[in-house]
Design goal:
Shape: elongated
Structural class: alpha+beta
CATH superfamily of the largest domain: Ribosomal protein L6
Number of helices: 3
């Protein structure tokens, strides 16, 4: 059985949780999220904790137990603290700006790249850094990955868009061969 799935989720005082059949609704200071729990997994609220258990024994039920617990934990964390990813621009002339709800990135192409901001995510730009934040962890990570894909860091000079703190494995360039 999943070790993660066995752990109960402690609910903060600022979070309201409602279980309606197989639907879990979480409401907190940052917003409200809801998701459907898989049929082989059961969920119940005991005092100020959320406990998951396997209701229908199947081959993949232990894996789904851990998955459902992790997704529910991310919902609770999202409505209380939220999630944030920070991207850095490295390169001469690389810059980003917001035009209304559109992110405009100049990353060494002949034209600026424009990207619309999804509803669930907030994007802010400050001095060479792009901050992507929201209450859905999956959506924040997906939008940050799309921004990074505009110009991923290259291994020779390290230019491009990278996550804050990301280490780029640098390669050595070609060497001139001396004549003997």
């Amino acid at each position: 059985m999943s070790r993660i799935g066995k752990k109960p989720i402690k609910l903060p005082e600022s979070v309201d949780l409602e279980i309606d059949g197989k639907t879990v609704k979480v409401k907190g200071p940052k917003g409200e999220l809801e998701r459907e729990i898989r049929p082989e997994i059961g969920v119940e609220k005991k005092d100020d904790t959320l406990v998951f258990k396997i209701e229908k024994e199947t081959k993949r039920a232990p894996a789904f137990l851990g998955l459902e617990r992790s997704l529910s934990f991310n919902m609770v964390k999202g409505v209380t603290d939220g999630f944030e990813k920070v991207l850095e621009l490295h390169g001469v002339g690389y810059r980003a700006r917001m035009e209304g709800t559109t992110l405009v990135v100049e990353a060494g192409f002949s034209h600026p790249v424009k990207m619309e901001t999804p509803d669930e995510v907030d994007i802010t730009v400050e001095k060479g850094k792009i901050k992507v934040s929201g209450i859905k962890k999956e959506k924040v990570g997906q939008v940050a990955a799309k921004i990074r894909d505009i110009r991923p860091p290259e291994p020779y000079k390290g230019k491009g868009i990278r996550y804050e703190g990301e280490e780029i494995m640098r390669k050595e360039g070609k060497k001139a061969v001396g004549s003997e």
